[in-house]
Amino acid sequence: MATEKTDKPDRFDEVDWTELAGTRRRDLSVNSLGMIATTLPLVALFAYDWRFVGEREATFGAVGLEADWSGIDFMFVFTLLLFCFYLVLPLYQHPRMTRYYWREFKRNRPAVVSLGWLLVVFVGGLLGPLVLNAPQQDVLAGHQPPVFLSIDAANVAQCLGEVRGGRCYGTWQYPLGTTRGGKGVFRTIVYGMTISTQIAFITTTIVAAIGVSVGTASAYAGGWVDELLMRFVDIVLSFPTLLMFLLILYIYGAGLGMFIFVFSLFAWGGTARYVRSKSLSVAEAAYIDASRLSGAGTYRVVRRHVVPNTASSIITQLTLLVPGFLLAEAQLAFLELGDSELPSWGQLISAGRSDLAFAPWIVLAPGIVLFLTILAFNFLGDALLDALDPQTEAETER
Question: How does it sit in the membrane (predicted)?
Answer without folding.
Answer: Multi-pass membrane protein
